[in-house]
Amino acid sequence: MGCRSVWTRRRPGSSPSWAVDRFLGLVEGVDVLLPSRDEACLLTGLPDVADAAAKLSRHVPLVIVKQGAKGALVARSGTVGARVAAVTAAPRDSTGAGDAFTGAFLAALLAGAEAEEATAAGCRAGARAVERVGGRPPRAAGRGPGDG
């Protein structure tokens, strides 16, 4: 199975139209895109996150826009079809929250979950991640290197 990845980085300011068009050309063939709220707006040049998610989903079959404490949007075929609520958390550090979301989302999706269910798993993992300082959760017994 092949996998084409496109990584995004948030930069302040708005994107010129040529940059938006170039990015949308680069995501051709991508199956799932998981930008943050700021990245989605930057990558489309649109100020509204729902509009940005909808636009991205005209180019990528499944778009999940992560919104931190506001949950996530699930968009397909030019429409935001679901808004998945965030999980209540006592945030201490946001380091690794997006990675935790993405890992849990992809694990659930690959295990057969529907996109909305996988997004909820991502929201749960992101909430757990922000409650700890640093980007690495503690190891569970028997799960680290050298643990047989």
UniProtKB/TrEMBL annotation:
Listed SUPFAM superfamilies: Ribokinase-like (SSF53613)
Residue ranges of the TM segments: none
GO MF term list: kinase activity
UniProt name for this protein: Sugar kinase
Domain Carbohydrate kinase PfkB as annotated: residue spans: 15-137
Keywords of the record: Kinase, Transferase
InterPro entries assigned to the protein according to its UniProt record, in alphabetical order: Carboh/pur_kinase_PfkB_CS, PfkB_dom, Ribokinase-like
